[in-house]
Structure formats: C-alpha cells, structure tokens
Write a structure and sequence with these properties.
heterodimer; A: six-stranded parallel sheet; B: alpha/beta
C-alpha cells in the first residue's frame, strides 16, 4: 500500500491507450510517466498530450523504480509477454480484455502477478457500466425472482479504415480472435457475473466480411449459456452487422420470474415489475435515465489506482477474467465441432 | 381462434358461417348468435351438411389429425390451426386425406399473413440489401390459462411451447431464409402450470441454414409483459443493412444510403377482427376455393415446420445439434 500518486506507463498508444492515458491525466491520484509504442511518433504524440515521456522500449519504463504500474493496450497476442515482464519487474498491471489468447498464458500471467505481489486487473469495461451494475444488483437482490433469460447484443460494423480505429489493423490479423476475443468476451464476462454458475456453452460463428474470411477469424459470434439454475443466456457480438440506433435494439434484456429489465441503446433503463401489476394492466414501467454520464472506460484507471493505494478490491478478479476467456474459448470449440461444450 | 375465424367469415362478403361446433353447446350457440349459422355439439352434423364447403378446425393439437382427416374425407376444404399435427405420421395421413379428396388443406400459419413479413420475404428474394446472414424472431409473454380459455394448452400431449409457439417461427425462418440444415434447441419449464404437466414454456432454437446463415428464435410463455420493452419481434441482418419488424411497423436500414432508416407502418398495428392477420385466413381460403388463388402455405411446408420443431425438441433433450434431411414431398402418393 502506498499513498499519494500512482505512476503509470501506457503500453500501446492506440485507441484504448489514449482513453486510459487521458483518464489517468485527469485523475488526481494517477499520472502517466511513460507512453510506450513501437512507433516513436505515436508514443511522442500521446506523451505530449499527457505530459509523459515517449519511448519505444518498454524496458526503459520498467527499469524506473518510480514507476508503479503499466497499462497494457497491445494486440491480444502480446498480452502475456508484456504483462509477465511488467509483473516480474514488480509493477502492477492493468491489461485490456481479453486477459490473453489462451488459458496457459492467463495462468502464467496470474502466477507471475501473485509471485511478485502485484495487482492484475483485466479491463472488462462493461462491469463499470451503471446499467449493467443495476442488473447485477437486481439479480443479487432477488426482488424480481430468479433470471429466466438474459441477452446482451452488440452489433456494428467496425472498420479499421475509420479514423477512430486507424491503429487497429491488428484486429484483422490471424490469431487475435476476431469478434470472439475482441467483442464476445465482454458479454461473456457479464453472463458469468450475472448468472448462477454456467455449466455449458454452445457457440456459433460466422465470417461474413472478406477481411475476416481471409484471416480465418469470426466477425459474428452468438453464444448460448446454460446456467445451473436453469437460466439461459444468449449473447451476440458482431463486426458485420449494419445496426443503427434507429432500429431500437436494446443492448441487454433480462427476463426474471417477476419482471423484465431492458437496457436500451440510448442508455435508458426500463424496468417492469409484475408484482406491482397484479391486474396485468402493464402500465407500470419505470424508465430510468442512464446512471452516469461518465464513460466507463475512463473510470478504469481511477478505480485501479484506488485499489493500488488503499487495497480496495479490483472490480474484476483475474480469475473471473480467466473464466470469461475459458467460456469464450469453449464457445469457439463448440462452434467448430457443432457440439455443446461443458465448462 | 374459432371466434376470430368466425368473425372473419362474417365480415367477408364471400364467406359465411353455417355451423358452429363445440362440445359445450353454450359456446357454439354464442358463436352462432354473434356471427350467424346454427349451433351444434355434433361435428358429424356439419360434415353431413351439403351447404358446408369448408371446415375451420381450432381444437387442441391432439385432436387435429382425427377431425382434419374426417373433414377431408367428407369432401370439405380445411383450415386447421398450427401446428398441423403432433407427429410426422399424422401429418402424412392428413395431407394424404386432403389430396385423395382433392380438397384444400390450409394450415393457419398466421405470421405469413402479416404484410410486413411478406415485405421482408420480398426484400430477401429481391436481394435489396444483399445476402441475409442472421434472422431472429421473438415472442415472449405470460398467457393466463383458465379452464375456459386455452386451459388445454399446457396439457401433457399438446406439445408445449415448441409446437404451440416456436412453430410459428420455424415456418417463418424457412420461408425467409430457405432450407434448414440443422437445429439446436433449448427448452425450459418455469411456470407451475407447465411444470406440472412436464411441458416446456420456454423454447429457444438456433437454425443453421443451407445458405450458411443462422437463425435464432425464442418463444416464451414464462415472460411477464416483455412487449412493454418495445423490442422488435424480428430482426434480419444483411450484408448491407438491417430490417426490424416491430408490432405495427417495420424499419429498414440500408448502410449504403447513410444513416437513413425507412419506417413503414403496418395496418396490423391494430388487432381487431377486421385487420388482424388471422382474419385474413378465411377470406384467403375462400379465394383459393372460388378463384383458384395460390395457397399462401403448402401443407408440405407446414409439415416441415413440425419436423423442425420435433428436431429442436430432440436437440433440447440430447443437448446436441440435430440435422434434418432435405425436405421430401409428404403425404404419400398422388391421388
């Protein structure tokens, strides 16, 4: 435990690196000391923005005894290497989801963090979303009875030719897991968080776009989860759907024994409690506005800093992040073999 | 459903209700009083009535085969509520009876009579938005079953929600996206009235089409009032866009045309006897009989829907994906 200010190095100055660097720069208890990227210009660009030093060698940062933690926003296949190196150097590690591309890698990372007594936080951003937290509270509180069916959908058409994703070409390379490890892992973690223990997964994958066909990775993942309680979950993550907010697709719907909750695309939270509606007039739907205007991704660094400084629990344990990976990998096996996989 | 069809017949200038049959004479009399004709508890009386051209069967599923076959053999055209039957053998017998008698057999798959569903079908066939790769359909509600109304629905031997509800989707999926290669079903029982009878009240089915596309449908009788959440019933994802069907309207998003969403209203937003899609079924049969209009759904297709649902139930039991053979002509030899 320490007091004062936590010094970070950002590894990977792309989209997420920039979001986390900005969040650290804004947080009074956090500060960015190094911005690391294989491209000096990219590192310097972000470093100038947040008042840090731009370097192309991670070791320079790791050798600095004043550095407390690293934030790893690199291609998935590089997570293990850089996280293990940082943890071995005694630095706390925050890494973007997925924790890694294989369970062996995840185990290696978790073991190294434990041996060196550093924290390992996998940035499963949706856990900080106010609406998803409300659903978690409703599930834990039991006011609406048990869950019957939970769905989470995120469908869009992400293109690396978009300016926003100009550093994201690696997403469309083999071994990065396409929409399975890039997207479905978010939803899978929420399912694992929300539902009583998941015992089976059945996965379906499509490669619709030529870019994804060429690399043999999916751009559409649908997964069905079976919980020991009998509840079903279904998630869909797509990089190949032309959704539009105008289609009014909710981001999540959970049907309980005594109610229904929907998170709409505009952030609205709708709650229907059938216990308030004994006559079945269905007139009582509570519509709550989005809980917090803050972007959940900007809350991750401050939350990590707090855990480092005062020992408060991480918003997701490394074991939970490993479990999300385990479930997604099982869904991929399921998709390939066309069988349901026990987990 | 009997009331809806009787109302539709009464509203159609070319159809009329001659006989209302129910084993409860008051129910039959009530229908006759409202929509015309005479009431009886004897099905045979209707079959022997020469004025009767067609019989509309809205009975529990387990009675479909017997009444349908009798009606065809008596030389009557038939509208039968979905599901066509509980087994493929029954379906073959029913289809064969109609064929031998040279009478029409219309299975009332009401979703085919929703104008927006026809628009989706046309849009897919024209290829406006490129190839579809995913289709979904959802209906989730919590029907209150009483001895008077739909009390039989949850009974053992009636097929539960898969044959009562998911069968709608099975037909629509096939109609939209073509032949199915395999299905994976998930079934659950949540509500006491269904648990008691060992029947499923939640059915989720994933369809794998020969085209490589996927479908996902959910029918639930265990969901409280979910329609309040304003979700679309159906969503079809295409190479170049997305189509959503809400109750009463449909939205088309074409990514090549920027952010514009085309919203088309559907008169079916209001569900009264004059406009509900089910009320289109009787006039359709009448036109088939009088004008030779082409049937909206062939009996073979309704049989295929039963086949897909039975496969999904098998899948739900075994926990494995179940393949279905290419569709075969049903009902045995030609008349």
């Amino acid at each position: 435990m320490k007091s004062g200010l936590v010094n970070y190095a950002i590894f990977g100055c792309g989209v997420m690196g920039r979001i986390h660097a900005d969040a650290a720069a804004k947080d009074p208890a956090s500060q960015v000391a190094y911005c690391v990227d294989i491209e000096q210009a990219r590192a310097d660009d972000l470093a100038d923005r947040v008042g840090a030093r731009g370097v192309t060698e991670g070791r320079i940062a790791l050798q600095d005894p004043a550095l407390d933690g690293v934030i790893v926003c690199l291609p998935h296949s590089l997570h293990r290497e850089f996280c293990v190196e940082a943890a071995a150097a005694g630095k706390h590690v925050m890494v973007e989801k997925p924790i890694s591309v294989s369970l062996d890698e995840a185990d290696d990372m978790i073991a190294t963090a434990a041996e060196n007594d550093v924290l390992l936080l996998v940035a499963h951003v949706l856990r900080l979303d106010g609406n998803f937290r409300r659903i978690k509270d409703l599930l834990d509180g039991g006011e609406l009875g048990g869950p019957i069916l939970a769905r989470i959908h995120s469908e869009g058409f992400v293109s690396t030719s978009d300016e926003q994703y100009r550093y994201g070409a690696w997403y469309e390379t083999p071994g990065e897991g396409g929409s399975a490890l890039g997207g479905a892992i978010h939803q899978t973690d929420l399912m694992g968080w929300w539902l009583p223990r998941i015992t089976k997964v059945t996965g379906f994958e499509l490669s619709n776009r030529p870019e994804y066909q060429a690399i043999g990775e999916p751009d559409f993942n649908m997964i069905v989860y079976e919980s020991e309680s009998g509840a079903l979950g279904e998630t869909t993550y797509s990089y190949s759907s032309h959704q539009s907010a105008a289609n009014d697709m909710p981001a999540a719907v959970v049907t309980f024994e005594n109610g229904v909750v929907s998170v709409m695309a505009n952030g609205e939270f709708r709650l229907y409690d059938s216990q308030d509606d004994p006559d079945g007039t269905r007139s009582k739907v509570s519509i709550l506005p989005r809980e917090s205007p803050a972007r959940p991704a900007s809350m991750e660094v401050p939350s990590f800093t707090k855990s480092i400084l005062d020992g408060s629990p991480l918003f997701i344990t490394a074991q939970e992040a490993r479990r999300a990976l385990e479930l997604v990998l099982a869904s991929r096996r399921s998709a390939q073999t066309r069988t349901t996989v026990d987990v | 459903m009997g009331v809806i069809h009787a109302g539709a017949a009464a509203n159609d200038p070319r159809s009329q209700l001659c006989v209302a049959v129910d084993r409860v004479v008051e129910k039959a009399q009530d229908l006759a009083d409202r929509f015309g004709g005479r009431a009886t508890t004897e099905f045979q009386q209707a079959l022997h009535d020469d004025r009767v051209d067609a019989v509309i069967i809205a009975l529990p599923h387990s009675l479909h085969r017997d009444y349908c076959v009798q009606a065809s053999r008596a030389g009557k055209h038939v509208i039968i509520e979905k599901p066509l039957s509980l087994t493929l053998q029954d379906a073959d017998e029913m289809i064969a009876a109609a064929r031998v008698a040279r009478r029409i057999l219309l299975v009332a798959h009401v979703l085919r009579f929703v104008p927006n569903h026809r628009r989706v079908k046309d849009l897919i066939d024209r290829g406006d938005l490129g190839k579809p790769f995913m289709a979904r359909y959802r209906n989730e509600h919590y029907p209150r079953l009483t001895p008077d109304r739909l009390g039989w629905l949850a009974r053992r031997g009636e097929g539960g929600v898969p044959l009562a509800g998911s069968i709608h989707h099975a037909d629509l999926m096939r109609w939209w996206l073509g032949e199915v290669e395999s299905v994976r079903g998930f079934e659950r029982s949540w509500r006491n009235e269904w648990i008691r009878e060992g029947q499923s009240d939640v059915s989720m089915i994933i369809y794998r089409f020969e085209s490589g596309a996927l479908g996902e449908t959910t029918y639930s009788y265990a969901a409280p009032a979910s329609e309040l959440n304003k979700r679309p019933n159906a969503v079809v994802s295409f190479e170049h866009g997305t189509v959503s069907v809400f109750p009463g309207e449909m939205r088309i998003f074409d990514a090549r045309k920027g952010g514009a969403v085309v919203v088309q209203a559907d008169v079916d937003g209001v569900s009264d006897h004059a406009t509900s899609p089910a009320a289109r079924e009787v006039p359709h049969l009448t036109r088939c009989i009088l004008d030779g209009e082409k049937l909206v759904i062939e009996p073979d297709e309704a049989c295929r829907a039963v086949e897909l649902i039975l496969a999904s139930t098998k899948s739900a039991r075994t926990g494995a994906e179940v393949g279905v053979l290419p569709m075969l002509p049903r009902g045995g030899g030609q008349a």
